[in-house]
């Protein structure tokens, strides 16, 4: 096993990956991991470059690259491999440019801004439901239902189905959480993927017959110079938007509140100046973002630092490590909710820059302003919190007690 592999798979790393990131960045910034079967990058500049330069670092096939399966199994997981070899997030320009323009026509910053009042209502309602009791689990009572309700409303799908989305999303992404997923994990992920695809195919058919005022209809209707998304492209975009659209924001909001509670000076600062909620959100994304491991594949032999990455090898971009790189961020381990500039890479960089960033940037500040504005004396009610770092980094639950303001 290579140098950092046991640290990278340890429970301590799950709880706090940043000391390991720092050591890797200092001692082996371009590190080959036997456990993950890929190169791991920890420097800001390397990660920004590899996110941007799609000709040298492709997104195609990146999620299935480390799958190590006997021949007959490859056939059985064909739908999963197919899904991850196409669709917005898995292809490069020019295919990506075309698809992104079409998806963007439906998912515009304007459509997102229109959600502001709706988001404020849900935030208030979720807090109303807990305020009398003086306690809540931030994740399960607040930061999970918020984005899932918003994305369901935007897409025009019944919020009652959210238990289904949650189960499917969790299982679909489960295969990305381990370096070499077993056939059982892969087939499980695939079953949920097929179920989610069928769910969106049915809605696609309904919206074609009867358009509604929602994102799926907008995707069905999006047309640019005679070009439209195919049914498969539209279904795969919906899968990406639904998966990307809820758990990431869940953990952004909850991690942010957790770190505020660990830094009473910053908590006080935000309570006194709620207008800092936007820049605080950027700092939480930098300081402990919910999505830590992104991937690309080298399309040619290429040198990064002192190492040659061979054509076809996978690289893992440790976004959380880039976001604590002292070459980019002065005093990177300090939480400063007014940090400026703050060019973090939590939403990626370059052509695949997160399409949902404006939505997350709308939801999180509303959430912080309301939580800090309506609750006081917030304390964590459990001293044995557990972190999850499978695909998304976040606490498994965050029980708090408080008094109404
Ligand atoms: C805190 C919240 C979020 C984080 C940290 C996050 C992170 C990311 C990152 C790092 C990428 C780039 C992946 C790459 O370069 O390969 C990405 C892409 C994407 N995200 Fe997000 N995301 C968040 C919220 C959302 C939301 C709310 C949505 C949708 C409602 C969304 C939808 C997407 C989509 C569709 C892409 C693909 C864009 C493309 O390939 O052109 N994300 N996200």
Task: Give structural notes.
52% of the residues lie in helices and 12% in strands. It contains 19 helices and 14 strands. Strands 1-2-10-7-3 form a 5-stranded mixed sheet, with helices on both faces. It has a 3-stranded antiparallel sheet with strand order 4-14-11. It starts with a helix and ends with a strand. The model has no long low-confidence stretch (mean pLDDT 94). The structure holds protoporphyrin IX containing FE (HEM).
Task: Name its key features.
405 residues, alpha+beta, Cytochrome p450, five-stranded mixed sheet, three-stranded antiparallel sheet, 19 helices, 52% helix, binds protoporphyrin IX containing FE
Q: How do the strands of the widest beta sheet line up side by side?
A: 1-2-10-7-3
**What ranges have pLDDT less than 50 throughout 5 or more consecutive residues?**
none
Strand-pairing-aware structural class? alpha+beta
Kindly state the number of beta strands.
14
CATH-scheme architecture: Orthogonal Bundle
How far is it from the N-terminal to the C-terminal residue, by CA?
54 Å
Helix content: 40-55%
CATH superfamily assignment? Cytochrome P450
Chain-wise SSE layout:
Layout: H1 5-8, H2 11-15, H3 18-27, E1 30-33, E2 38-41, H4 44-52, E3 57-58, H5 71-76, H6 78-83, H7 95-106, H8 109-113, H9 116-131, E4 135-137, H10 138-143, H11 145-155, H12 162-174, H13 183-209, H14 215-221, E5 223-224, E6 227-228, H15 231-262, H16 264-272, H17 277-288, E7 293-298, E8 302-304, E9 307-309, E10 314-318, H18 319-322, H19 357-374, E11 375-380, E12 387-388, E13 394-395, E14 399-404
Helix pairs in contact: 7-14, 9-11, 9-19, 11-15, 12-13, 13-14, 13-15, 15-17, 15-19, 17-19
Bound molecules: protoporphyrin IX containing FE.
Protoporphyrin IX containing FE (HEM) binds at residues 51, 59, 88-89, 100, 151, 240-241, 244-245, 248-249, 252, 289-291, 294, 346-348, 352, 354-356, 359-360.
């Amino acid at each position: 096993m290579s140098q950092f592999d046991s640290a990278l798979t340890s429970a301590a790393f799950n709880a706090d990956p940043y000391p390991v990131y720092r050591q890797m960045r200092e001692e082996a910034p371009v590190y080959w991991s036997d456990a993950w079967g890929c190169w791991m990058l920890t420097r800001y500049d390397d990660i920004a470059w590899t996110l941007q330069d799609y000709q040298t670092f492709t997104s195609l096939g990146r999620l299935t690259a480390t799958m190590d399966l006997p021949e007959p199994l490859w056939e059985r997981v064909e739908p999963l491999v197919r899904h991850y070899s196409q669709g917005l997030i898995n292809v490069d320009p020019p295919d990506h440019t075309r698809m992104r323009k079409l998806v963007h026509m439906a998912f515009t910053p304007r459509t997102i801004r229109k959600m502001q009042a709706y988001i404020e209502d849900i935030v208030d309602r979720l807090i109303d439901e807990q305020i009398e009791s003086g306690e809540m689990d931030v994740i399960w009572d607040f930061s999970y239902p918020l984005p899932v309700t918003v994305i369901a409303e935007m897409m025009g799908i019944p919020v009652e189905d959210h238990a289904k989305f949650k189960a499917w999303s969790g299982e679909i992404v489960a295969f990305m959480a381990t370096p070499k997923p077993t056939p059982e994990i892969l087939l499980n992920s695939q079953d949920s993927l097929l179920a989610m695809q069928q769910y969106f195919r049915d809605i696609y058919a309904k919206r074609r017959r009867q358009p509604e005022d929602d994102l799926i209809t907008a995707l069905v209707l999006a047309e640019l110079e005679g070009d439209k998304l195919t049914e498969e492209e539209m279904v795969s975009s919906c899968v990406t938007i639904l998966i990307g659209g809820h758990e990431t924001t869940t953990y952004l909001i909850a991690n942010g509140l957790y770190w505020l509670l660990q830094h009473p000076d910053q908590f006080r600062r935000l309570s006194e100046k709620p207008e800092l909620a936007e820049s605080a959100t950027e700092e939480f994304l930098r300081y402990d973002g919910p999505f830590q491991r992104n991937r690309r594949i080298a399309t040619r032999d290429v040198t990064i630092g002192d190492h040659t990455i061979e054509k076809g090898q996978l690289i893992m971009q440790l976004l959380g490590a880039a976001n604590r790189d002292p070459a980019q961020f002065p005093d990177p381990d300090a939480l400063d909710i007014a940090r400026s500039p703050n060019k973090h890479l939590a939403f990626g960089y370059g052509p695949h820059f997160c399409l949902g960033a404006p939505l997350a940037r709308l939801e999180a500040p509303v959430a912080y302003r309301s939580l800090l504005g309506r609750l006081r004396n917030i304390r964590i009610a459990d001293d044995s919190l557990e972190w999850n770092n499978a695909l998304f980094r976040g606490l498994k639950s965050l029980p708090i007690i408080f008094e109404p303001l």
